[in-house]
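Handover notes (outgoing to incoming on-call)

Open items:
1. Poly(A) polymerase I: sequence verified, structure written out, both below. Nothing else pending on this one.
2. Nothing else urgent.
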Amino acid sequence: MIKKFIRKILGVKEARNTGEPEVLGPEQHGIDPKMVSANAVRVTSTLQEAGFEAFVVGGAVRDLLLGVKPKDFDVATNATPEQVKRLFRRAFIIGRRFQIVHVMFGQDLLEVTTFRGTATAAAPKDEHGRVLRDNTFGTQAEDAERRDFTINAMYYNPATQQVLDYHGGMKDIRARTLRIIGQPEARFREDPVRMLRVVRFAAKLKFDIEPSTAAPIPVMAPLIDNVPAARVFDEMLKLLMSGHALACLQQLRKEGLHHGLLPLLDVVLEQPLGFKFVTLALDSTDRRIAAGKTVSPGFLFASLLWHQVLEKWNAYQAAGESPIPALHVAADEVLDSQTEKLALQRKIGSDMRDIWAMQPRFERRNGKNPYKLLEHVRFRAGYDFLLLRCASGEIDQELGDWWTAFYEADEATRADLVSSAAGTGAKRKRPARRGQRHKDDLEAGAGHDEQDGPDVHAQVDAADDEGEEADSFNADSAAAAAPRKRRRGPRRRKPGGEGGGPPPDDVPFNTGH
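Poly(A) polymerase I C-alpha coordinates:
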Protein backbone atom coordinates (compact mmCIF):
# COMPACT_ATOMS: atom_id res chain seq x y z
CA MET A 1 0.00 0.00 0.00
CA ILE A 2 2.83 2.39 0.90
CA LYS A 3 4.64 1.72 -2.41
CA LYS A 4 1.41 2.25 -4.31
CA PHE A 5 0.79 5.54 -2.47
CA ILE A 6 4.35 6.77 -3.18
CA ARG A 7 3.96 5.90 -6.90
CA LYS A 8 0.69 7.84 -6.97
CA ILE A 9 2.27 10.91 -5.31
CA LEU A 10 5.27 10.85 -7.66
CA GLY A 11 3.15 10.23 -10.75
CA VAL A 12 4.90 6.92 -11.48
CA LYS A 13 2.72 4.37 -13.26
CA GLU A 14 2.66 0.95 -11.73
CA ALA A 15 4.25 -1.65 -13.99
CA ARG A 16 1.67 -3.86 -15.63
CA ASN A 17 2.03 -7.63 -15.51
CA THR A 18 1.94 -8.36 -19.23
CA GLY A 19 2.08 -12.11 -18.68
CA GLU A 20 -1.64 -12.21 -17.91
CA PRO A 21 -4.14 -10.35 -20.09
CA GLU A 22 -7.14 -8.37 -19.03
CA VAL A 23 -10.17 -10.33 -20.22
CA LEU A 24 -12.97 -8.18 -21.58
CA GLY A 25 -16.44 -9.60 -22.14
CA PRO A 26 -19.00 -8.47 -24.74
CA GLU A 27 -20.55 -5.94 -22.35
CA GLN A 28 -17.12 -4.33 -21.78
CA HIS A 29 -15.75 -4.15 -25.32
CA GLY A 30 -19.02 -3.75 -27.27
CA ILE A 31 -17.87 -5.53 -30.46
CA ASP A 32 -20.73 -6.39 -32.83
CA PRO A 33 -20.24 -10.06 -33.91
CA LYS A 34 -22.01 -9.29 -37.21
CA MET A 35 -19.07 -7.10 -38.24
CA VAL A 36 -16.65 -10.02 -38.02
CA SER A 37 -15.83 -11.65 -41.36
CA ALA A 38 -17.44 -15.07 -41.84
CA ASN A 39 -14.15 -16.32 -43.29
CA ALA A 40 -12.24 -15.10 -40.24
CA VAL A 41 -14.67 -17.04 -38.04
CA ARG A 42 -14.19 -20.05 -40.32
CA VAL A 43 -10.40 -19.91 -39.98
CA THR A 44 -10.40 -19.52 -36.18
CA SER A 45 -12.99 -22.27 -35.68
CA THR A 46 -11.09 -24.68 -37.99
CA LEU A 47 -7.89 -24.13 -36.02
CA GLN A 48 -9.66 -24.43 -32.67
CA GLU A 49 -11.39 -27.67 -33.73
CA ALA A 50 -7.95 -29.04 -34.64
CA GLY A 51 -6.78 -28.37 -31.06
CA PHE A 52 -5.01 -25.03 -31.56
CA GLU A 53 -5.56 -21.57 -30.15
CA ALA A 54 -6.75 -19.00 -32.68
CA PHE A 55 -7.79 -15.35 -32.43
CA VAL A 56 -8.61 -12.39 -34.66
CA VAL A 57 -5.80 -9.96 -33.94
CA GLY A 58 -4.28 -6.56 -34.67
CA GLY A 59 -5.92 -3.83 -36.71
CA ALA A 60 -9.15 -5.78 -37.17
CA VAL A 61 -9.75 -5.87 -33.40
CA ARG A 62 -8.83 -2.19 -33.12
CA ASP A 63 -11.34 -1.25 -35.83
CA LEU A 64 -14.06 -3.45 -34.31
CA LEU A 65 -13.56 -1.71 -30.96
CA LEU A 66 -13.88 1.66 -32.73
CA GLY A 67 -17.10 0.53 -34.43
CA VAL A 68 -15.51 0.46 -37.89
CA LYS A 69 -15.89 -2.54 -40.20
CA PRO A 70 -12.35 -3.83 -40.87
CA LYS A 71 -11.15 -4.18 -44.44
CA ASP A 72 -8.78 -7.04 -43.57
CA PHE A 73 -8.77 -9.72 -40.92
CA ASP A 74 -5.60 -11.25 -39.49
CA VAL A 75 -5.52 -14.37 -37.35
CA ALA A 76 -2.91 -15.36 -34.75
CA THR A 77 -2.45 -18.95 -33.60
CA ASN A 78 -0.06 -21.28 -31.79
CA ALA A 79 -0.06 -23.61 -34.82
CA THR A 80 3.10 -23.53 -36.93
CA PRO A 81 2.89 -22.36 -40.58
CA GLU A 82 3.15 -25.98 -41.78
CA GLN A 83 0.31 -27.06 -39.46
CA VAL A 84 -1.87 -24.19 -40.66
CA LYS A 85 -1.16 -25.00 -44.30
CA ARG A 86 -2.34 -28.60 -43.86
CA LEU A 87 -5.75 -27.50 -42.57
CA PHE A 88 -6.76 -25.39 -45.58
CA ARG A 89 -7.03 -26.25 -49.25
CA ARG A 90 -5.75 -22.90 -50.52
CA ALA A 91 -3.00 -21.89 -48.12
CA PHE A 92 0.47 -20.58 -48.99
CA ILE A 93 3.48 -19.97 -46.75
CA ILE A 94 5.23 -16.69 -47.53
CA GLY A 95 7.77 -14.38 -45.93
CA ARG A 96 11.48 -14.33 -45.25
CA ARG A 97 11.80 -12.11 -42.18
CA PHE A 98 8.94 -13.96 -40.49
CA GLN A 99 6.92 -16.73 -42.11
CA ILE A 100 3.16 -16.30 -42.37
CA VAL A 101 0.36 -18.18 -44.15
CA HIS A 102 -2.07 -16.69 -46.67
CA VAL A 103 -5.40 -18.52 -46.62
CA MET A 104 -7.64 -17.84 -49.62
CA PHE A 105 -11.43 -18.05 -49.86
CA GLY A 106 -12.26 -16.96 -53.39
CA GLN A 107 -10.88 -13.42 -53.63
CA ASP A 108 -10.82 -13.02 -49.83
CA LEU A 109 -7.34 -13.33 -48.32
CA LEU A 110 -6.68 -13.86 -44.62
CA GLU A 111 -3.23 -13.65 -43.07
CA VAL A 112 -2.50 -16.27 -40.41
CA THR A 113 0.59 -15.81 -38.20
CA THR A 114 2.09 -18.05 -35.57
CA PHE A 115 2.60 -16.47 -32.13
CA ARG A 116 6.02 -14.85 -32.20
CA GLY A 117 8.48 -15.49 -29.40
CA THR A 118 10.87 -13.15 -27.63
CA ALA A 119 13.51 -11.78 -29.99
CA THR A 120 16.87 -13.45 -29.54
CA ALA A 121 20.29 -11.81 -29.70
CA ALA A 122 21.22 -14.34 -32.37
CA ALA A 123 18.60 -13.03 -34.80
CA PRO A 124 20.35 -11.64 -37.93
CA LYS A 125 20.51 -7.82 -37.92
CA ASP A 126 22.05 -5.16 -40.11
CA GLU A 127 24.65 -2.69 -38.87
CA HIS A 128 21.91 -0.31 -37.70
CA GLY A 129 20.09 -2.91 -35.59
CA ARG A 130 17.25 -3.71 -38.02
CA VAL A 131 16.12 -7.34 -37.64
CA LEU A 132 16.53 -9.20 -40.94
CA ARG A 133 15.11 -12.64 -40.08
CA ASP A 134 13.30 -13.82 -36.98
CA ASN A 135 11.26 -17.01 -37.20
CA THR A 136 11.11 -17.53 -33.44
CA PHE A 137 7.73 -18.85 -32.25
CA GLY A 138 6.41 -18.39 -28.72
CA THR A 139 3.40 -17.84 -26.47
CA GLN A 140 0.51 -15.43 -26.91
CA ALA A 141 1.96 -13.14 -24.19
CA GLU A 142 5.30 -13.01 -26.03
CA ASP A 143 3.49 -12.37 -29.29
CA ALA A 144 1.63 -9.42 -27.71
CA GLU A 145 4.92 -7.94 -26.55
CA ARG A 146 6.37 -8.22 -30.05
CA ARG A 147 3.53 -6.17 -31.58
CA ASP A 148 4.15 -2.50 -32.30
CA PHE A 149 1.39 -0.50 -30.57
CA THR A 150 -0.84 -1.19 -27.60
CA ILE A 151 -3.99 -0.72 -29.66
CA ASN A 152 -2.80 -3.48 -32.03
CA ALA A 153 -1.96 -6.01 -29.30
CA MET A 154 -5.45 -7.28 -28.49
CA TYR A 155 -6.91 -10.68 -29.37
CA TYR A 156 -10.58 -11.42 -30.09
CA ASN A 157 -12.02 -14.92 -29.89
CA PRO A 158 -15.21 -15.14 -32.02
CA ALA A 159 -16.24 -18.35 -30.24
CA THR A 160 -16.34 -16.80 -26.75
CA GLN A 161 -16.65 -13.13 -27.85
CA GLN A 162 -13.87 -12.22 -25.42
CA VAL A 163 -11.04 -9.73 -25.96
CA LEU A 164 -7.64 -10.40 -24.38
CA ASP A 165 -5.77 -7.15 -23.67
CA TYR A 166 -2.11 -7.48 -22.60
CA HIS A 167 -0.85 -3.86 -22.74
CA GLY A 168 -3.74 -1.56 -21.89
CA GLY A 169 -4.81 -1.14 -25.48
CA MET A 170 -8.46 -0.65 -24.55
CA LYS A 171 -7.53 2.21 -22.24
CA ASP A 172 -5.44 3.85 -24.99
CA ILE A 173 -8.29 3.49 -27.49
CA ARG A 174 -10.63 5.28 -25.12
CA ALA A 175 -7.99 7.99 -24.57
CA ARG A 176 -7.33 8.11 -28.34
CA THR A 177 -3.61 7.70 -27.73
CA LEU A 178 -1.03 5.92 -29.88
CA ARG A 179 1.65 4.27 -27.71
CA ILE A 180 4.44 1.93 -28.75
CA ILE A 181 5.07 -1.22 -26.74
CA GLY A 182 8.49 -1.31 -25.10
CA GLN A 183 11.37 1.12 -25.41
CA PRO A 184 10.66 3.39 -28.43
CA GLU A 185 14.25 3.81 -29.67
CA ALA A 186 14.85 0.05 -29.64
CA ARG A 187 11.54 -0.74 -31.34
CA PHE A 188 12.12 1.85 -34.09
CA ARG A 189 15.65 0.55 -34.63
CA GLU A 190 14.35 -3.02 -35.00
CA ASP A 191 12.00 -1.90 -37.76
CA PRO A 192 12.18 1.76 -38.91
CA VAL A 193 8.95 1.33 -40.91
CA ARG A 194 7.17 1.57 -37.56
CA MET A 195 7.79 5.32 -37.70
CA LEU A 196 5.71 5.52 -40.88
CA ARG A 197 3.04 3.36 -39.28
CA VAL A 198 2.85 5.76 -36.31
CA VAL A 199 2.12 8.58 -38.73
CA ARG A 200 -0.49 6.62 -40.67
CA PHE A 201 -2.40 5.46 -37.60
CA ALA A 202 -2.27 8.87 -35.93
CA ALA A 203 -3.65 10.59 -39.05
CA LYS A 204 -6.19 7.90 -39.92
CA LEU A 205 -7.58 7.40 -36.42
CA LYS A 206 -7.12 11.04 -35.32
CA PHE A 207 -5.15 9.80 -32.30
CA ASP A 208 -2.44 11.70 -30.44
CA ILE A 209 1.04 10.17 -30.44
CA GLU A 210 2.16 9.57 -26.86
CA PRO A 211 5.11 11.96 -26.12
CA SER A 212 7.75 9.31 -25.36
CA THR A 213 6.73 7.47 -28.56
CA ALA A 214 7.03 10.62 -30.70
CA ALA A 215 10.24 12.00 -29.16
CA PRO A 216 12.85 9.81 -30.96
CA ILE A 217 11.22 9.95 -34.43
CA PRO A 218 12.92 13.10 -35.81
CA VAL A 219 16.32 11.83 -34.71
CA MET A 220 15.83 8.28 -35.99
CA ALA A 221 14.09 9.22 -39.26
CA PRO A 222 17.26 8.63 -41.37
CA LEU A 223 17.07 4.91 -40.48
CA ILE A 224 14.26 4.59 -43.04
CA ASP A 225 16.96 4.92 -45.73
CA ASN A 226 18.19 1.44 -44.68
CA VAL A 227 14.81 -0.22 -45.28
CA PRO A 228 14.34 -1.98 -48.65
CA ALA A 229 12.70 0.43 -51.10
CA ALA A 230 9.87 -2.02 -51.81
CA ARG A 231 8.78 -2.03 -48.15
CA VAL A 232 8.89 1.77 -48.01
CA PHE A 233 6.78 1.95 -51.16
CA ASP A 234 4.18 -0.47 -49.74
CA GLU A 235 3.90 1.60 -46.57
CA MET A 236 3.66 4.86 -48.51
CA LEU A 237 0.90 3.35 -50.67
CA LYS A 238 -1.03 2.32 -47.54
CA LEU A 239 -0.56 5.84 -46.22
CA LEU A 240 -1.81 7.52 -49.39
CA MET A 241 -4.75 5.12 -49.76
CA SER A 242 -5.77 5.25 -46.11
CA GLY A 243 -8.64 7.63 -46.86
CA HIS A 244 -6.77 10.35 -44.95
CA ALA A 245 -3.92 10.99 -47.37
CA LEU A 246 -3.54 14.75 -46.84
CA ALA A 247 -3.60 14.37 -43.07
CA CYS A 248 -0.93 11.66 -43.37
CA LEU A 249 1.36 13.85 -45.46
CA GLN A 250 0.93 16.73 -43.05
CA GLN A 251 1.78 14.37 -40.18
CA LEU A 252 4.86 13.19 -42.10
CA ARG A 253 6.07 16.78 -42.31
CA LYS A 254 5.27 17.39 -38.65
CA GLU A 255 7.35 14.38 -37.57
CA GLY A 256 10.17 15.16 -40.03
CA LEU A 257 9.73 11.90 -41.96
CA HIS A 258 9.08 13.21 -45.47
CA HIS A 259 12.72 13.92 -46.33
CA GLY A 260 13.96 11.33 -48.80
CA LEU A 261 10.45 9.98 -49.44
CA LEU A 262 9.09 13.00 -51.32
CA PRO A 263 12.06 15.37 -51.02
CA LEU A 264 10.43 18.45 -52.55
CA LEU A 265 7.15 18.07 -50.67
CA ASP A 266 7.96 21.01 -48.41
CA VAL A 267 8.59 23.25 -51.42
CA VAL A 268 5.39 22.17 -53.16
CA LEU A 269 3.16 22.57 -50.11
CA GLU A 270 4.62 25.99 -49.33
CA GLN A 271 3.76 27.32 -52.81
CA PRO A 272 0.10 28.43 -53.11
CA LEU A 273 -0.36 26.81 -56.54
CA GLY A 274 1.34 23.55 -55.55
CA PHE A 275 -0.44 23.34 -52.22
CA LYS A 276 -3.84 23.82 -53.85
CA PHE A 277 -3.10 21.22 -56.54
CA VAL A 278 -1.90 18.56 -54.08
CA THR A 279 -4.78 19.31 -51.70
CA LEU A 280 -7.36 18.91 -54.48
CA ALA A 281 -5.76 15.65 -55.66
CA LEU A 282 -5.64 14.10 -52.19
CA ASP A 283 -9.13 15.30 -51.26
CA SER A 284 -10.45 13.68 -54.45
CA THR A 285 -8.64 10.45 -53.55
CA ASP A 286 -10.02 10.45 -50.01
CA ARG A 287 -13.57 11.01 -51.31
CA ARG A 288 -13.27 8.12 -53.75
CA ILE A 289 -12.03 5.80 -51.00
CA ALA A 290 -14.83 6.91 -48.67
CA ALA A 291 -17.32 6.13 -51.46
CA GLY A 292 -15.84 2.67 -51.96
CA LYS A 293 -14.43 3.50 -55.41
CA THR A 294 -11.11 2.33 -56.80
CA VAL A 295 -8.05 4.59 -56.73
CA SER A 296 -5.12 4.53 -59.15
CA PRO A 297 -1.69 4.61 -57.47
CA GLY A 298 -0.28 5.99 -60.73
CA PHE A 299 -2.66 8.97 -60.57
CA LEU A 300 -1.77 9.57 -56.92
CA PHE A 301 1.98 9.67 -57.47
CA ALA A 302 1.59 11.60 -60.73
CA SER A 303 -0.26 14.27 -58.74
CA LEU A 304 2.28 14.41 -55.92
CA LEU A 305 5.26 14.70 -58.25
CA TRP A 306 3.69 16.89 -60.95
CA HIS A 307 5.12 20.18 -59.73
CA GLN A 308 8.61 18.71 -59.67
CA VAL A 309 8.08 17.66 -63.30
CA LEU A 310 6.53 21.04 -64.14
CA GLU A 311 9.48 22.96 -62.70
CA LYS A 312 12.02 20.94 -64.70
CA TRP A 313 9.83 21.01 -67.82
CA ASN A 314 9.66 24.81 -67.77
CA ALA A 315 13.41 25.02 -67.18
CA TYR A 316 14.22 22.82 -70.20
CA GLN A 317 11.85 24.79 -72.42
CA ALA A 318 13.44 28.05 -71.27
CA ALA A 319 16.79 26.57 -72.29
CA GLY A 320 15.48 26.06 -75.84
CA GLU A 321 14.27 22.43 -75.73
CA SER A 322 11.07 21.54 -77.62
CA PRO A 323 8.03 21.02 -75.35
CA ILE A 324 7.49 17.27 -75.70
CA PRO A 325 11.16 16.17 -75.45
CA ALA A 326 11.54 18.62 -72.54
CA LEU A 327 8.58 17.01 -70.76
CA HIS A 328 10.03 13.56 -71.35
CA VAL A 329 13.44 14.46 -69.91
CA ALA A 330 11.84 16.17 -66.90
CA ALA A 331 9.68 13.11 -66.22
CA ASP A 332 12.71 10.82 -66.52
CA GLU A 333 14.70 12.82 -63.99
CA VAL A 334 11.89 12.93 -61.44
CA LEU A 335 11.02 9.25 -61.79
CA ASP A 336 14.66 8.17 -61.57
CA SER A 337 15.20 10.14 -58.37
CA GLN A 338 12.02 8.76 -56.77
CA THR A 339 12.50 5.15 -57.88
CA GLU A 340 15.67 4.94 -55.81
CA LYS A 341 13.69 5.80 -52.67
CA LEU A 342 10.28 4.28 -53.31
CA ALA A 343 10.84 1.43 -55.79
CA LEU A 344 7.96 2.61 -57.96
CA GLN A 345 6.60 -0.37 -59.87
CA ARG A 346 7.02 -0.32 -63.64
CA LYS A 347 3.27 -0.18 -64.31
CA ILE A 348 2.79 2.73 -61.92
CA GLY A 349 5.67 4.59 -63.56
CA SER A 350 4.15 3.90 -66.99
CA ASP A 351 0.76 5.25 -65.84
CA MET A 352 2.43 8.39 -64.50
CA ARG A 353 4.22 8.98 -67.81
CA ASP A 354 1.00 8.56 -69.77
CA ILE A 355 -0.88 11.01 -67.56
CA TRP A 356 1.87 13.62 -67.84
CA ALA A 357 2.38 13.06 -71.58
CA MET A 358 -1.31 13.64 -72.31
CA GLN A 359 -1.30 17.15 -70.85
CA PRO A 360 0.20 18.97 -73.90
CA ARG A 361 -2.07 16.95 -76.18
CA PHE A 362 -5.17 18.40 -74.49
CA GLU A 363 -4.19 21.76 -75.95
CA ARG A 364 -4.52 20.39 -79.52
CA ARG A 365 -8.22 20.59 -80.25
CA ASN A 366 -8.14 20.70 -84.05
CA GLY A 367 -8.59 18.00 -86.68
CA LYS A 368 -8.63 14.43 -85.43
CA ASN A 369 -6.48 15.09 -82.36
CA PRO A 370 -9.35 15.24 -79.82
CA TYR A 371 -10.90 12.01 -81.18
CA LYS A 372 -7.58 10.17 -81.01
CA LEU A 373 -6.94 11.35 -77.45
CA LEU A 374 -10.44 10.29 -76.42
CA GLU A 375 -9.55 6.69 -77.39
CA HIS A 376 -6.42 6.64 -75.20
CA VAL A 377 -6.56 3.76 -72.71
CA ARG A 378 -5.85 6.16 -69.82
CA PHE A 379 -7.83 9.13 -71.14
CA ARG A 380 -10.03 9.40 -68.04
CA ALA A 381 -7.01 9.62 -65.72
CA GLY A 382 -5.39 12.25 -67.95
CA TYR A 383 -8.67 14.17 -68.19
CA ASP A 384 -9.15 14.15 -64.40
CA PHE A 385 -5.57 15.36 -64.05
CA LEU A 386 -6.32 18.20 -66.49
CA LEU A 387 -9.33 19.25 -64.41
CA LEU A 388 -7.11 19.36 -61.30
CA ARG A 389 -4.71 21.67 -63.13
CA CYS A 390 -7.63 23.94 -64.09
CA ALA A 391 -9.14 23.93 -60.60
CA SER A 392 -5.79 24.83 -59.01
CA GLY A 393 -5.38 27.81 -61.34
CA GLU A 394 -2.37 26.39 -63.18
CA ILE A 395 -4.09 26.65 -66.58
CA ASP A 396 -7.20 28.35 -67.97
CA GLN A 397 -10.51 26.81 -66.88
CA GLU A 398 -11.79 27.21 -70.47
CA LEU A 399 -9.66 24.28 -71.58
CA GLY A 400 -11.16 21.96 -68.98
CA ASP A 401 -14.68 23.13 -69.77
CA TRP A 402 -14.14 22.46 -73.48
CA TRP A 403 -12.93 18.92 -72.83
CA THR A 404 -15.81 18.25 -70.45
CA ALA A 405 -18.26 19.33 -73.14
CA PHE A 406 -16.42 17.26 -75.80
CA TYR A 407 -16.28 14.19 -73.56
CA GLU A 408 -20.01 14.28 -72.79
CA ALA A 409 -21.27 15.37 -76.27
CA ASP A 410 -22.69 13.38 -79.18
CA GLU A 411 -20.86 13.19 -82.52
CA ALA A 412 -22.53 16.25 -84.07
CA THR A 413 -21.80 18.43 -81.05
CA ARG A 414 -18.22 17.20 -80.97
CA ALA A 415 -17.75 18.25 -84.58
CA ASP A 416 -19.10 21.72 -83.73
CA LEU A 417 -16.76 21.98 -80.74
CA VAL A 418 -13.73 21.04 -82.85
CA SER A 419 -14.79 23.55 -85.48
CA SER A 420 -15.21 26.31 -82.90
CA ALA A 421 -11.80 25.50 -81.42
CA ALA A 422 -10.06 25.87 -84.80
CA GLY A 423 -9.30 29.52 -84.09
CA THR A 424 -7.82 28.96 -80.62
CA GLY A 425 -4.29 28.66 -81.98
CA ALA A 426 -4.14 24.88 -81.90
CA LYS A 427 -3.57 24.64 -85.63
CA ARG A 428 0.01 25.22 -86.76
CA LYS A 429 0.56 28.14 -89.10
CA ARG A 430 1.52 27.13 -92.63
CA PRO A 431 5.07 28.21 -93.58
CA ALA A 432 5.08 31.21 -95.93
CA ARG A 433 7.43 29.55 -98.39
CA ARG A 434 5.18 26.54 -99.04
CA GLY A 435 4.13 27.84 -102.51
CA GLN A 436 7.74 28.48 -103.48
CA ARG A 437 8.71 24.96 -102.38
CA HIS A 438 5.91 23.50 -104.51
CA LYS A 439 7.11 25.51 -107.50
CA ASP A 440 10.65 24.26 -106.94
CA ASP A 441 9.39 20.67 -106.83
CA LEU A 442 7.63 21.09 -110.16
CA GLU A 443 10.70 22.62 -111.75
CA ALA A 444 12.80 19.77 -110.39
CA GLY A 445 10.51 17.21 -112.09
CA ALA A 446 8.73 15.99 -108.99
CA GLY A 447 5.96 14.52 -111.17
CA HIS A 448 3.07 16.82 -110.13
CA ASP A 449 1.37 19.07 -112.68
CA GLU A 450 -0.81 22.01 -111.79
CA GLN A 451 -3.83 19.71 -111.52
CA ASP A 452 -2.11 17.68 -108.77
CA GLY A 453 -1.12 20.70 -106.70
CA PRO A 454 -4.31 21.24 -104.65
CA ASP A 455 -4.54 17.51 -103.79
CA VAL A 456 -0.97 17.47 -102.52
CA HIS A 457 -1.59 20.53 -100.36
CA ALA A 458 -4.75 18.98 -98.96
CA GLN A 459 -2.76 15.90 -97.99
CA VAL A 460 -0.09 18.00 -96.28
CA ASP A 461 -2.66 20.12 -94.42
CA ALA A 462 -4.39 17.01 -93.05
CA ALA A 463 -1.05 15.59 -92.01
CA ASP A 464 -0.18 18.87 -90.25
CA ASP A 465 -3.40 18.63 -88.22
CA GLU A 466 -2.94 14.98 -87.27
CA GLY A 467 0.83 14.63 -87.13
CA GLU A 468 2.01 17.73 -85.32
CA GLU A 469 2.43 15.69 -82.17
CA ALA A 470 4.88 13.40 -83.92
CA ASP A 471 6.91 16.40 -85.07
CA SER A 472 7.06 17.59 -81.48
CA PHE A 473 8.24 14.20 -80.25
CA ASN A 474 11.16 14.19 -82.71
CA ALA A 475 13.03 17.43 -82.30
CA ASP A 476 16.00 16.53 -84.49
CA SER A 477 16.55 17.99 -87.93
CA ALA A 478 15.88 14.71 -89.74
CA ALA A 479 12.33 14.55 -88.39
CA ALA A 480 11.75 18.19 -89.25
CA ALA A 481 12.89 17.57 -92.82
CA ALA A 482 10.84 14.40 -93.28
CA PRO A 483 7.70 16.11 -94.68
CA ARG A 484 9.74 17.72 -97.46
CA LYS A 485 11.18 14.37 -98.54
CA ARG A 486 7.72 12.81 -98.67
CA ARG A 487 6.47 15.58 -101.01
CA ARG A 488 8.42 13.97 -103.83
CA GLY A 489 6.06 10.98 -103.79
CA PRO A 490 2.44 11.01 -104.84
CA ARG A 491 1.26 11.83 -101.30
CA ARG A 492 2.29 11.90 -97.67
CA ARG A 493 1.46 8.76 -95.69
CA LYS A 494 -1.49 9.34 -93.39
CA PRO A 495 -0.99 8.46 -89.71
CA GLY A 496 -2.03 4.88 -89.14
CA GLY A 497 -2.82 4.45 -92.86
CA GLU A 498 -1.42 2.20 -95.52
CA GLY A 499 2.14 2.96 -94.43
CA GLY A 500 1.56 0.80 -91.34
CA GLY A 501 2.35 1.49 -87.69
CA PRO A 502 0.46 3.51 -85.08
CA PRO A 503 -0.55 7.13 -85.66
CA PRO A 504 1.97 9.65 -84.35
CA ASP A 505 -0.36 10.68 -81.51
CA ASP A 506 -0.13 7.14 -80.15
CA VAL A 507 3.67 7.05 -80.03
CA PRO A 508 4.64 5.97 -76.50
CA PHE A 509 5.88 8.78 -74.30
CA ASN A 510 9.39 7.40 -74.07
CA THR A 511 9.87 6.47 -77.73
CA GLY A 512 13.27 7.41 -79.06
CA HIS A 513 14.62 8.73 -75.78
